[in-house]
């Protein structure tokens, strides 16, 4: 049988990805990305000849290794594998796939598990962001069973609390990389923000939308999508991201006042398909904007009172709760720390066999 690569397929939060040990993949970025494309089956809308799930949320990879940095347990490189183009983007974070990094590392023996929980500090190499994951490990064994439910995932599983450290500006260099809390692009008021994920916030009503449409309805709104993409390309330059036509960032989040008791309603494009829920760092960035005066989100949001705010972000599949610890003053508040709870589950462990790099006539 042709050579393969050890791979664990895992659900992390509301995403699914292929998890690899870094030293079992090519060291060079070009060779590594080529291999990931061939393993997941891109470019092909169905990814029929690979293990990808034919959607951005299920065409992801995690590359994990022990960290050599003091105070950090693991290094994690996230890779967004484009479904229909031969592109692998390692620019952004992914907090959902991050949720599976701790369990994966314990399953692979990179770290020793402790009873009843194991705390793991993970550095995301894409952006330098550091997070602490708390994995349930009774008797030193990873436990995936539990009673925590997250919208967008059926059933319940063991909670994995994630506390983010110093996420502001992790991709773009500052929380508001354009230098303003509100910008005008193509005559539309937008907020460019990066609290772990570069996101452009827009009022849904400015595009003739309510912000409560289904994903199918959003994706059928051709004129709105054309306008949003024009804004995205311009915002990318303002956010220090350069030309973003082939990049998955910035994400575009359409906002509306909450309709189901949350703090804000969202419909997020990643960047051109509608997210079935909302990404982890995307939710953190949206929630952050909701509590800071001068942003597009601030006037639409209904955040709870108090220095510790549990922000319920509404999305197509339900709610995403973000925990914000506030500082500063009432007139000039700041977000000191953010956190949330995800779940993860190992789905399959084995050998992934990539397709050949070229079609060989006459091959057996």
Characterize this entry briefly.
The protein is of the alpha+beta class. The chain is built from 6 helices and 17 strands.
Highlighted features:
single chain; 364 residues; alpha+beta; Diaminopimelate Epimerase, Chain A, domain 1; 2 domains; 33% strand
Could you explain how this protein is built, in words?
The protein is an alpha+beta fold. The chain has 2 domains: 5-159 and 344-352, Diaminopimelate Epimerase, Chain A, domain 1, CATH 3.10.310.10; 183-339, Diaminopimelate Epimerase, Chain A, domain 1, CATH 3.10.310.10. The chain has helices spanning 29-40, 95-99, 101-107, 215-219, 222-238, 280-290; strands at residues 5-12, 15-21, 60-66, 74-81, 88-89, 117-124, 130-136, 160-165, 183-185, 188-194, 198-203, 251-256, 264-269, 308-315, 318-328, 333-342, 344-352. It has a 17-stranded mixed sheet that branches. The chain starts with a strand and ends in a 12-residue tail after the last strand. The model has no long low-confidence stretch (mean pLDDT 95).
């Amino acid at each position: 049988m042709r050579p393969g690569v050890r791979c664990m397929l895992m659900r992390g939060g509301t995403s699914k990805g292929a998890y690899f040990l870094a030293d079992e993949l090519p060291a060079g970025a070009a060779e590594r990305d080529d291999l990931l494309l061939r393993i997941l089956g891109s470019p092909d809308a169905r990814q029929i000849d690979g293990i990808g799930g034919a959607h951005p949320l299920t065409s992801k990879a995690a590359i994990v290794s022990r960290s050599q940095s003091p105070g950090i347990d693991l290094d994690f490189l996230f890779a967004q594998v484009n479904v229909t183009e031969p592109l692998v983007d390692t620019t952004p974070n992914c907090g959902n796939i991050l949720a599976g990094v701790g369990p994966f590392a314990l399953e692979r023996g990179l770290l020793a598990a402790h009873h009843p929980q194991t705390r793991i500090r993970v550095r995301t190499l894409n952006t330098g962001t550091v997070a602490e994951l708390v994995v349930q490990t009774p008797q030193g064994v990873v436990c995936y069973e539990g009673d925590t439910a997250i919208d967008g995932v059926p059933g319940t599983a063991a909670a994995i609390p994630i506390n983010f450290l110093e996420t502001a500006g992790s991709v773009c260099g500052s929380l508001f990389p354009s230098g303003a809390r509100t910008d005008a692009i193509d005559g539309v008021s937008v907020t460019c923000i990066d609290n772990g994920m570069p996101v452009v916030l827009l009022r849904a009503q400015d595009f003739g939308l309510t912000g409560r449409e289904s994903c199918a309805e959003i994706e059928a709104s051709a004129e709105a999508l054309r306008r949003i993409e024009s804004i995205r390309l311009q915002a990318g330059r303002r956010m220090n991201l350069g030309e973003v036509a082939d990049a998955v960032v910035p994400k575009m989040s359409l906002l509306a006042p909450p309709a189901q008791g949350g703090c804000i309603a969202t419909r997020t494009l990643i960047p051109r398909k509608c997210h079935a829920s909302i990404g982890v760092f995307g939710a953190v960035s949206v929630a952050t904007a909701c509590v800071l005066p001068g942003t597009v989100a601030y006037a639409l949001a209904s955040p709870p009172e108090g220095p510790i705010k549990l922000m319920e972000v509404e999305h197509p599949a339900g709610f995403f709760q973000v925990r914000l610890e506030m500082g500063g003053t009432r007139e000039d508040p700041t977000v000191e720390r953010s956190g949330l709870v995800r779940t993860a589950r190992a789905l399959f462990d084995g050998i992934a066999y990539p397709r050949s790099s070229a079609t060989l006539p006459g091959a057996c």
